[in-house]
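@channel sequence for tomorrow's demo:
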Amino acid sequence: MVVTDAPYPHLFPQVRPLADAAAELRIRRIRTDRWIGYARAEAALAAMEDLLTFPKRTRMPNLLLVGPSNNGKTMIVEKFRRSHLPGSGMDRYDSAVAVPVLKVQMPPAPDEKRFFAAVLEALGAPDRSNDRLAAKQDMAMRMLRATNVRMLVIDEVHNILSGSRDQQRRFLNLLRWLGNELQIPLIAVGTAEALRAIQSDDQLANRFTPFSLPPWTAGSEYLRLLNTLEAMLPLREPSRLEEPAFAQKLLTAAEGILGEVVSIVTMAAVEAVTSGAERIRIEDIDSIGFMPPTERRRAG
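structure tokens (generated this afternoon):
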């Protein structure tokens, strides 16, 4: 066993200096979004990386990243997008304005005009809201080709189901047409309703491979996640989140949802700094005012 005299051995080396910072700085750091790597997320990133290198063909393979709300889907695709920023592939693809991965959010309803407006906005095009659908579609397709977009990520795809049956059918046809026209992989991201929407169209169902991010359960991967999360928080004392009773209480309160686990730990860590306790205690979970997802939905 290696013996070290380094202070705060329960923290990652790059986080240890922050433990001596002022409370305000540490609270800001605790509340900052952070990437937490885990096996399923890394597998999703690898699957997207594989699709990005896929040669063009008439029927491109696509991916449907599906899971409960707030369970890490958007964080994964944003991590992937940041690793392929505009211009990062211009030496290989000979385009000074290359946008390898374009991420857009599905409009609240399956509206083609608003969808193409979102594509144009993501590409930095001027907003011409009075343009007809045909004009927006034509400009968006020209810009997608001009910027050499090699993958299109569409978040919140479950919003398709908020439209009428006719709107849903038209938008599903649009997704199929986009894949055929651009010959690039599409990454659809959404809840279980997104899977239902895609599978309502036989042709799309055959083109999109589902990749699930299910709710978390107790196990070694969950304990590793808690260890990683704790090592990122600049608290001066170890909280030992991985202890069985503590880990289970967190999991139950969060209802197995990753974003909720992070929210609970973040709130409790801020309280630990504010109160001077410098560690998260199991009783904090009941006293910080966290409301589980089910209760929030009932309250709404």
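heads up for whoever presents: DSSP finds 14 helices and five strands in the chain.
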